[in-house]
């Protein structure tokens, strides 16, 4: 293309107009927008180094994660930890109380901090619903309005911590602690009482912003180190040959990504190491490298979201990365115009540049002291976390304090090389050992079962039972008593338990007389192959029994010894 042709005329003319428009501006004043300023041009006016808009984006992103987490809790808590749940939290709290031998005291509360200690346990389903609904309401308000204060954010944190600390194995994963740590920092990003998207009296604290950056640094570096120190396949670059097929809950994209050439999988593994072991240090290398870090990490999380159903983990991991961007970087997300947020931030920047700052008030001094105390607390609680990061025996997804303020993180330190599944089956036959007994499969909402069913796509939503079934498949039922509890509920066609499933073959029929668990090996079908041509996404082969056929009568003593409510036939 010729450089002197019409293609260059418009930019040169635009440049002359901008120069003319700013000819009368005072030295040192920001350049004013031309009469035809568009949103893209206006966003460039924002100066670097302030984080007013960053706070809005970060709080809204955090509120979205809280909303999803409380939505999952509202839909599933009653079935998992409610009055008739698979692991009732009332039984768990009683065991904690008995362990400390006495009425509820500081030892019990500090071991399992939850507001449920203060509520009536006779209607635990109502308590769990109340906590989830209150969390949904508060998070919805913050998400829609972009307004938050310390009271609202502390409420969200206390509510979710109350659920996590009674959630037992259902809430035992790293993203629960990660949400609590992120949410704890979010409390101090806000003013105490003021509900405004732009509370001009309380600018975002640099200490809190660095707290978020420190969090994303530990998340990514911890994930990288646990891989290098863990499974050999991460070092010989073969892990991605297996990951898409054997991850907990694959999605449709995982089926096609698994079929990629070997060199693509090698590149994916190398890229993972670069993003988790090298890129985190960009945070400490100045503004531009910090922005690059945030962009790369968010892009990385988007790729992970596309390739699998990992709950809200990847969505949550994007949140602290937002702290890497300042107002000048995020200005494009906000509309331009007089009186808009971007225009108000620009005025605040101009006032600060001219030194027009109000004298510090008593409240500001207190706030600074609180932020200093927060920084000292996070630094102190980070000591064992850093020691763990440097240790050759690193452990992942562990907390060193009951409030989960600073935690260790990591993911997929080891990769399973083959996929096994537990398939629950029921039969109406009076004799389970008869060769003519017809066994019918129960289908879960997302985990693989019927080979012809397309893998689900649910992220950031999360089916907790489906996720635990993946772990149960490479353990034994003795390690997972809840699966026997589930079998007992299915023997009674219990509506609460059945609501966790996608298909109950005994719906509108008499309950099964027997339920058993069968162990299968699953592999993705080969595109163009015989099974794929028949419409099957999976090929499965029976390994053997997972647990033997059980009847409701067989489980009576088992239930009573664990103080589980005995199933009643529906």
TrEMBL record:
It holds the Pfam family LMF1. It is a multi-pass membrane protein. It is found in: Endoplasmic reticulum membrane. GO terms for cellular component: endoplasmic reticulum membrane. Keywords: Endoplasmic reticulum, Membrane, Transmembrane, Transmembrane helix. Residues 1-38 are annotated as: Disordered. Coiled coil: none annotated. Residues 171-330 form the Lipase maturation factor 1/2 N-terminal domain. The chain crosses the membrane at residues 52-74, 131-159, 179-195, 207-226, 298-316, 369-390. Its main location: endoplasmic reticulum. InterPro entries: LMF (IPR009613), LMF1/2_C (IPR057433), LMF1/2_N (IPR057434). GO terms for biological process: protein maturation. Residues 405-548 form the Lipase maturation factor 1/2 C-terminal domain. Involved in the maturation of specific proteins in the endoplasmic reticulum. Belongs to the lipase maturation factor family. This is Lipase maturation factor. It comes from Odobenus rosmarus divergens (Pacific walrus).
